[in-house]
Amino acid sequence: MKNIIILAGLLISFPIVSQTKVVKKNAVKANNFGVTYSLPKTNLVVEATVTKSTAKAGPYYKYAEKYLGVKDVITEDNVHYTLDNINLVNQGVPDPDNTYIIEFKQGTVAPYACLTEEGLLCSINADYTPDKQTAASAVAATKTGGANASVFSEELLMAGSTARQAEVAAKQIYRIRESRMNILTGDADNMPPDGEAMKLVIQQLDEQEKALTAMFTGSEEKELIEYESVIIPYDDMDKEIIFRFSDRLGVLDADDLAGTPVYFTLKATERAPELDAKEAEKKEKSLKGIVYNIPGKASIEISMNNKTRYKGEAQITQFGTREGLAPVMFEDKKAPVKVYFYPETGAIKQVIQ
């Protein structure tokens, strides 16, 4: 079976918290003392964090050195993308081919199971609290520079040529600096009445100066974009292109030759022996009680331009096998066994007797 790759782009402008929700399912007469659950299969989610920088030249950039003594200015509009980080997340999703029923005997003390909303098994006879997951790293769009209409004085608006406008704007900048210095040294004719008022006036002068200066030096806006590439592995992968990246266009489809390829390599390091059809059928029939996963493992490397951007190891349920917990373990009416699972892999986390 071929490995499956899906690419999706997400613009993040506010924090997102991804938290597993758990549902408690009681085994009662109404459901024949059974709880249905699914074992997961592994999705590998490649998360690419990209910064988009949009630069805009100021209308007076040609006069920045003449009037302000500034040489390093933006001279033309452009958009630039930077690939900041690549990360890998192991995600378990319900496998429709592996759905089972936990059958509790009537009379067992308060039998129940905790499942995720998708039906993945979390625990049996024990309450389950998901691991705390932090808010997704998110940076709202930030902007530096840019003119505000409030800084356009009558003299600036009335100026005819661009050269004359630049001269007036520069004089306005120097007047703002002089006013700020007079306030800070106490030489202003109309001093603010208190410290808070002074702080507010200084802040307003700073903002006006920055807005006028940006008309010479230019402005830049940055925003964070997160892309996800979902891989469903069924076999080893050798330098498969999962997406491409361009510093002018950002993240691109794998077949878009305008970008540099990002390669994904996966090699199984622990894999259950392959069974023929008869062996697989015999194995399936032998599974009794609570069926769970014993996942395999794989080493993973993601690279671009001959540089490793990510390297690590992941548990892959598709490379593993399934086993069953004996039904007799759950027949003690006085002290029922508690079992905890990893919902993302279906493996046993802890058994408490």
Any chance you could write out the topology, listing elements then pairs?
Layout: E1 4-11, E2 22-26, E3 34-56, H1 64-68, E4 78-103, E5 112-116, E6 121-124, E7 142-144, H2 154-158, H3 162-185, H4 195-217, E8 219-232, E9 237-246, E10 250-252, E11 260-270, H5 277-286, E12 290-304, E13 307-325, E14 338-342, E15 347-352
Antiparallel strand pairs: 1-8, 2-5, 3-4, 3-8, 5-6, 6-14, 7-8, 9-10, 9-11, 11-12, 12-13, 14-15
Explain what the structure shows.
- With 353 residues, this protein is α+β, with helices and mostly antiparallel strands.
- It has two domains: 244 residues, no CATH class; 72 residues.
- It has five helices and 15 strands.
- The strands form three sheets. Strands 1, 3, 4, 7 and 8 form a five-stranded antiparallel β-sheet that branches.
- Helix 3 packs antiparallel against helix 4.
- The protein is elongated and about 90 Å long.
